[in-house]
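During the reporting period, our protein records have gained a structure token line. A sample record is set out beneath this paragraph:
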Amino acid sequence: MAGRALGLVLLGMGLSHCKGDPDVADAGVDAGVSPVQTVVENAKLLQVDARQTFLLSVKGDGTYAQALPTGEPSRIAAPAEQAIVASDGGAVVLWSPQGEGQVRTLWLWRPGTEAAIPMSTRAWDVAHDPGMSFVAFTEFDPVSGVNSVRVARTDTCTREACPLWTALERPSRGLVLKVGGTTLLASEGTQAWLIDVPSSTVTELGPTVAYPAFATDGTRYALFDAANHVQVFDTATRTLQWEQVWRDEATRKGWHVSNAFMTDVGTLILNIKADLTPETDSVACDATGCRDLEGGLCRNWERSSGVVLCLIDRWVTPNEFTRDAAYLDGTARTLVGTETTRRSSVYPAFSADLRNQAWTVRETRDGAKVDTLWWKTPDATHQTPLEGLTDSTLFAFTPGARQVLFARTLTTADGKPEHRLSLWDGEAVSDLAVLEDAPFLNPIPPMVRDNPPTLYLTVTQGEYRPTSVIRVPLP
């Protein structure tokens, strides 16, 4: 099976209005280079809160927390794979990599405390509200065969443990958990339940032939019937809001919904699959109707709020496919199309309002790879040729979308690689710093924080060599 790598896929060509003199694109490193500060050694970045009061990192023996800007790291838990901070910064939920039986250990940590509070060693799905007033998870007991939805109300947690409420028990491992606001949506096979955490109320919903979808704010949910209808209901009243037919029997006979989700603006996106072939596709529905998308494996993109990533598999033979990608907004409008995503060397960058998009185009000229920077605004598109090659590890807008921040690699006169942190304002490239170590392709991406603008990045001395977390002030 030949799968073209997601390709760090990027946006399209055919864009107009180039700005900037291509012969003077690079300002180089100047005397005002921001200092690179090592925050923690022999570690990888895990999380930094929005106010930059603490940093979490992972070492071989555990998860470490330290106060910023000058605190020393202190171990708070075993190694974690992910850490999510509450909207007010007052709590963090951490979970470990999957262990035997694909279960995880789950912790709650309060900034300033010495240790994280264990909540489960057999967690499966994990869900929480933005303020982290509760943390919910599914927990399977292999002895009894019972799968349970457990809920920890975080204000009842002590330093030693969190009391758990069992909201639902089912004799199956197929229990799936979603969250919207302070409400949980649990589903198993053709059954679904709403769990209102503040009132501890569990409500059984009507049957559904596919996994239901849930709005991120918890105000609406979607069910599917056997007649190819998708029905969207109001959560509070359970009244039908709208209904559409998602499948055309003439062209989609023998297709089913594999999963579905709602975007942040309420559009329902269905990932669908053929019953007898490996084909996949996607459909977007709202109150006005449904339409086909160029997709097949769509999801809310974790790297940029409000962006939907769709992977498109194109089957060359029954056993061989290529994979492209597209980036959409919450209405399923294409921001980054498949026609040129293959040509990029980085993931695209989006401003918070999605009105600015940046990417690269990589070409081969005279046998050498060459990158060009692209920036699309609501009014124009700018491009600048780049000295060196962009590093896929870092490519993002600075706060306020004032500049594009990226890493690149150049070759020195003696043939050695030189790693730089650089900025691009749409016209000229300038350098923040030359890095002693290379950016590390960490599963947790680099983090840019505001007030003050700062980059946190994992770097490495080389393959299988130690990693460190650095901090770089941004202009």
